[in-house]
Please model this.
Amino acid sequence: MLLLVRHYCKHIADLAKPEFRGKYGAALEGTTLKSEKSILLFPMAFFARRILFVLSAILLKEVVWAQLALQTAVSLTMIIYLLWSRPLDSRFATWMGVMNEETALFLTYAQMCFTDFVPEPVTRS
Model:
């Protein structure tokens, strides 16, 4: 993924050209045609989020609070990034991405009710 982003950075002026998008644009599908480097963060963030989830589930399996904190931070970061840079090609796609992140954030908050964040086992259920 890093090699692909490096290639996109070298050809940042060609991102809007149809022949370049047809040949190398699979990772940028659904993003705007702006020639800005901030849109290159979207495929990296998309990939990194999944890698972080898997690594946290494997490496932090005994530390649930760290998993929840990491997922909360990732969701908040993605919401800020989506609203700040608007990398997606339509307003609807941007708001759907924000809604998906808000849903993930809400579910992470709900998971906190069933962990050691709630001190009494009786109040967990």
Summary: The mean pLDDT is 82. Residues 19 and 25 are 9 Å apart (CA to CA). The helical segments are 2-10, 18-24, 41-59, 64-85, 91-112, 121-124.
